[in-house]
Design a protein that fits this description.
2 copies of one chain form a homodimer. With 396 residues, the first copy, chain A, is an alpha/beta fold. Chain A folds into 2 domains: 129 residues, Aspartate Aminotransferase, domain 1 (Alpha-Beta Complex), CATH 3.90.1150; 226 residues, Type I PLP-dependent aspartate aminotransferase-like (Major domain) (Aspartate Aminotransferase, domain 2). Helix content of chain A is 34%, strand content 15%. Chain A is built from 12 helices and 15 strands. In chain A, the strands form 4 sheets. In chain A, strands 4-10-9-8-7-5-6 form a 7-stranded mixed β-sheet, sandwiched between helices. In chain A, strand 7, helix 7 and strand 8 form a beta-alpha-beta unit. In chain A, helix 1 packs antiparallel against helix 9 and helix 10 runs parallel beside helix 12. The radius of gyration of chain A is 22 Å and the shape is globular. Chains A, B: It catalyses: L-kynurenine + H2O = anthranilate + L-alanine + H(+); 3-hydroxy-L-kynurenine + H2O = 3-hydroxyanthranilate + L-alanine + H(+). Chains A, B: Keywords: Hydrolase, Pyridine nucleotide biosynthesis, Pyridoxal phosphate. Chains A, B: Its cofactor is pyridoxal 5'-phosphate.
Chain lengths: 396, 396
């Protein structure tokens, strides 16, 4: 097993143990120099010429390919752009068009709300009997019937870390004639994913969590290569056109995954992400997984020994869990604020989830032990029972 | 008339006269320091806390308000995000929902193709007889009938600079019961716009042209304040939700313009744009307009004297023209490459348009004279007739 720890490649503030890389990854050390170059040597000096000379136009597919390696997607089958919500919409819209005789999008109540909202918006626009149906996560398998046009699931539950079985559910969807869309928000860079083996039609994800692309980093979309030349992009913007600079009056979708591009890509964000992806050079996701589970098992064991009143909200079986561990506590919001105040950054998810992310590129066993000591102090001494920790602010 | 020239606030490469700020504005000098701060002091040090502590979450509406001042939109009626193509889609989708009994989106063949493509994508998804109808720009007025749900026009033609009459066409649209959507891509920061006076329902625009926000800077959308609490966002992402951090399973649109937000905003791009907007402090768009027309009139006069074979493609009447001047020339592509090669950067638009943008914040009369001298040299001596200038690359 190769060691994946590379703390020295990140900026981590003094006195902080960061267990929230599943919300926003920390900054890889080389990003500022890269962005400085993009601004001073490319934008400022090349001006409009940067689109060709600096390679800005090709970045969305180049970065897509570097992410593809971590999620089992062939080179040229992933492209970057927009936000995850927009990419969800594109995947869903293309999916329902592939099953014109069906009317139901199936998802589960554990899915990230924005995915459900985007589906609601889409079915509202489509009218004609289109419907979003959401069931409990454990009922998904039995709810995949021949009414279902598209099954849309997030592999790792954002609150509990519970994992769906990607291979099995994709097979069930296909057996029922449905299209499968996977959201990899908490999977890409967190756990091994093999999109090609799963045979799903679409996958989407974000890059500001485990891929450390920075706040608001662009999203990605994968289309199974055999479908990429026929999938309808719905958001048919000019950079998805076969010949964007011909300025035709009619849309002709581009070749393969390129058609999933929409508007002008965010070059500064794309460059930050491209630089951040270099952290993954030579990293094998199987090694990341083993290291992540070691940290998680240590954390669960130490927390349960030290603080019995915290109830594990994540699956106890490590194979059923992504790269985070969540505990339930009635006063979880205040407790998390008290923990953060002492330098251990996790986050809170309503109604009562204290969530801790494990990112073995920059966390080790000593960090886990130190974090547990803080949690123990907060819980044993009820340090959370202070009015200042109970004022609700926006938590992301 | 106040002088709006502030060259010292921009980085402009040595030996370059930049007449392409209508494609990508040059870099305001203070942007790199701001981005460096966002990376090193905010992302790296505050980590997830940056969303609140550094104000990232509020940026899309704050920056929207600073742009609103330049386009006659009240504070809080403009929000940033996504790309212009995506914002066009949101405006169109909301517009057609406001006129459920109508089926036609009207636009013109001079519109920027991506706007037409997004409309094609939308009507394709809607089915049910929805239609995009495009007419010649001069036929728009007579084509606004009671079949039209939404009129979508770009105020300034991207090739010729020809301007539509925003007030008159909006009134015609309203008289016919249609919703009006204006694309201000070549208007915002270029010419005075008074959205409130026009009474249009929606406006959208980009910020990497005259607003100098950088490559891939986020787009904006305006919704008329009396409609902002009822317009349906279509792309109903979590950051447009009334309470995004409640993680409800169902979408409830946020208050006013906030509902037009979709996914996580691109913080680095947003900060670059916010910094770039400081260039406009104390600038009156009426002064910008006067200065722009002075430069344009000088340019047309000097070019026509020096190079009679160039045919003016822009309206001769300055009041009918935006902030650019275009000339037709059969070998316009090669000629523009030859001109660029000599330090005067304009651009080419198929099939035969040589386009020059005028941006009086960083261009003066001496720049115009120097640019004309280069154009004269290239044209008089047929310097464009060189094979190296005829190889087509991507031009943006």
């Amino acid at each position: 097993m190769a060691n994946v720890l590379r703390k020295e490649q990140f900026i981590l503030p003094e006195g902080v143990i960061y267990l929230d890389g599943n919300s926003l990854g920390p900054m890889p050390k080389n990003v500022p120099a890269r962005l400085s170059g993009v601004m001073n040597d490319e934008w400022a000096q090349m001006l409009i010429g940067g689109w060709n000379k600096a390679g800005w136009m090709a970045q969305p597919t180049n970065v897509g390919t570097s992410i593809g390696r971590l999620i089992g997607a062939a080179a040229g089958s992933v492209v970057m752009g927009d936000t995850l919500s927009v990419k969800v919409y594109q995947a869903l819209a293309a999916g329902v068009k592939m099953r014109p005789e069906r009317r139901v999008i199936l998802s589960d109540k554990g899915n990230f709300p924005s995915d459900l909202y985007m589906a609601e918006g889409l079915v509202g626009l489509l009218g004609q009997g289109y419907e979003l149906r959401t069931v409990a996560p454990e009922d998904v398998a039995t709810s995949i019937t021949d009414e279902i046009a598209v099954v849309m699931l997030t592999e790792v539950d954002y609150r509990t870390g519970r994992m769906h079985d990607m291979q099995a559910l994709t097979k069930l969807a296909h057996d029922a004639g449905a299209v499968m869309v996977w959201d990899l928000a908490h999977s890409a860079g967190a756990i091994p994913v093999d999109l090609a083996a799963s045979n799903c039609e679409f996958a989407v994800g974000c890059t500001y969590k485990y891929l450390n692309g920075g706040p608001g980093a662009p999203a990605f979309i994968y289309v199974r290569p055999d479908l990429a030349d026929t999938a309808e992009p719905a958001l048919s913007g000019w950079l998805g056109h076969a010949n964007p600079f011909d300025f035709d009056l009619h849309y002709t979708p581009g070749k393969g995954i390129e058609r999933m591009r929409v508007g002008t890509p965010p070059v500064l964000q794309m460059a930050a992400l491209e630089e951040a992806m270099k952290v993954w050079d030579g990293v094998d996701m199987a090694d990341v997984r083993r290291a992540s589970l070691d940290l998680q098992e240590q954390f669960i064991k130490e927390v349960e020994q030290a603080v019995p009143q915290l109830e594990l909200a994540s699956p106890r079986d490590p194979q059923a869990r992504g790269s985070q561990v969540s505990f339930r506590f009635e006063h979880g919001y205040a407790a998390m604020q008290a923990v953060i105040d002492r330098g251990v950054i996790g986050d809170f998810r309503a109604p009562d989830i204290m969530r801790f992310g494990f990112t073995p590129l920059y966390l080790d066993a000593a960090d886990v032990t130190a974090a547990v000591a803080v949690i123990e102090d907060v819980m044993t001494n009820a340090l959370w029972d202070d009015p200042k920790y109970k004022v609700r602010g926006r938590v992301t």
